[in-house]
Write a structure and sequence with these properties.
With about 150 residues, the protein is of the alpha+beta class. Helix content is about 30%, strand content about 30%. It is globular and about 45 Å long.
Length: about 150
């Protein structure tokens, strides 16, 4: 089954790929590897901002991480690479959080679970989930990705 068909089956409509907000490329492909820059969480067109453990609860954080995952998929689609993904290799999750918040892994599950839903076993990946004091534009979560792609 194609990834486009899988997304349709899941009822997932990808957002428009976000333009870079600084001096970087949304993704770079080299020798069969695709490195996707950190993506921010847009839900219903609005950036999810704030800190986990303060003004963002766990459920909203997971929704934000899923939105980052959707933006990763949107970047791949915009580059013509979505159907060429052979393995999601690693996700890097960054969670803006208070010093006492320790559920970063649960937050980043929002993106991880999406990758498994979309790619099946090829969506299982290594991962980091790191708490940070602040993210660009006061985003609550940021997720980047490393993927293996065919024909590149």
């Amino acid at each position: 089954m194609s990834i486009a068909a899988r997304l349709q089956e899941l009822g997932i409509v990808l957002p428009k790929a976000a333009a870079p907000v600084a001096s970087y490329q949304p993704l770079v492909v080299q020798n069969g590897w695709c490195f996707v820059s950190g993506q921010l969480p847009f839900v219903d067109g609005a950036l999810v901002t704030g800190k986990l453990g303060a003004d963002v609860d766990l459920e909203r954080g997971q929704q934000a991480a899923r939105a980052c995952g959707l933006m990763i998929l949107a970047q791949l689609e915009a580059a013509g690479l979505l159907e060429r993904v052979t393995q999601v290799v690693k996700l890097g999750g960054f969670v803006a959080s208070t010093p006492d918040f320790t559920d970063q892994p649960k937050v980043v599950n929002g993106a991880s679970d999406l990758m498994f839903e979309v790619f099946g076993e090829s969506g299982r990946h290594a991962r980091s989930a790191v708490g940070v004091p602040v993210l660009p534009l006061d985003a609550a979560v940021e997720v980047d990705a490393i993927l293996a792609v065919s024909g590149a």
